[in-house]
# Entry
Amino acid sequence: MAKNQPKLTDMTELLLQQVIQLEHTIKQSKKTHLDTIKELSNIKVTVNVAELRQIEKEQRQRLQNDFDQFHREITKNNEELLKVHKAVSSKRLFYLIVLNIFLLLTTGFSMYLAVKNTIEKSEYERLEKEKGQLINQLENVNQFFNKNPRTAKSFKEWSQKQ
# Structure
């Protein structure tokens, strides 16, 4: 598309301005006609109806030409927009869909890993707690053997026999 291409809103605004201008012209013409009628009622003047009809035809033709030009420009813009729309092919759309599916799967996998790591973390914490309890029990047994060396000696002999 050309960079200086008028937009639909601009062309619509121009058409509305032309319609407003036409209404203004019609009001002025109506006022002029009413003034002329008042003058004619006082003065006997013959009006050339053919000339008035010619002016009316010219005004209608000018308005029709403006509308036709506006219609051509809108049609041209619509054709260019259709070309742009067709440029976005189904292949590109397919790539976008595949990319979205990939991102969705990646998100799902990440959530799975996060949940799995949470479960493994809680299991790890449980094992740490058990380890702490076993260390406490081992320390209690070591303290017992340190306080009772005879029992420790007999335990060593007994454990070596087994």
Notes: Helices lie at 8-42, 49-87, 90-147, 149-161. The radius of gyration is 48 Å.
